[in-house]
Amino acid sequence: MQRFGTLGKTGKFSTDQFDIASLDDEIRVDHLCESLLRLYYRFQVEESGARPEVAGANARGADYLLREFIIGDRRENLFRIDPKRIRQFAGNWYIAKSLEPNRGELQTILQGTAGLYAFLSGFGLYPAVQTAEIEQYCRDLDYYQRRIDDFWAIENDGFDAWCAACPVEP
């Protein structure tokens, strides 16, 4: 971790930089997120000894959840999300928005996301207690598989009931 110095308030990133109040902010935060994900990739390879293809898959997984859902759809600061957002993403948004939602792809996304929040927590940028909650939500693959199966089984006007079982809250 020493090679990466401090990423927090006195280092490369300030959590306040990721606040979104306008379209311009969203674009700026999207670029900041890209830089953060590049650091996450490098950290995995250089400090954790991950193979580049594994580190790349993890970074791409976290990238999808953060840049498409947290930043693009929810317009939230990725450092201030409620861990329940992970469940809302994996149990609803991802399934409804993907052409072919599947456990394998979702597992890669969630594995990368759990790793990213552990990385952020290690630099004091996200609370350890909430990181543990995120990791727990990321491991709940059987639940998400049931949600995917239930999604494919929807008939008539069952979509609203399906959504209500795991809503994406404002």
Morphology call: globular
Strand fraction: under 5%
User: What are the segments in which pLDDT stays under 50 over at least 5 consecutive residues?
Assistant: 1-6
What's the number of helices?
A: 7
Portion in helices: 55-70%
Question: How many domains?
Answer: 1
Q: What is the CA-CA span between the terminal residues?
A: 36 Å
* Succession of helices and strands: HHHHHHH
Mean pLDDT: 92
Tally of DSSP β-strands: 0
| Helix/strand/pairing category | mainly alpha
Radius of gyration: 16 Å
Structural description of this entry:
By secondary structure, the chain is mainly α. The protein has one domain (2-165). 65% of the residues lie in helices and 0% in strands. The protein contains 7 helices and no strands. It has helices spanning 23-46, 52-73, 84-97, 103-122, 128-139, 141-152, 159-165. The model is unreliable at 1-6 (pLDDT under 50).
In short:
Helices cover 65% and strands 0% of the residues.
Task: Tag the structure with descriptive keywords.
mainly alpha; single chain; disordered N terminus; 7 helices; 0% strand; 170 residues
List the helices and strands and how they pair.
Layout: H1 23-46, H2 52-73, H3 84-97, H4 103-122, H5 128-139, H6 141-152, H7 159-165
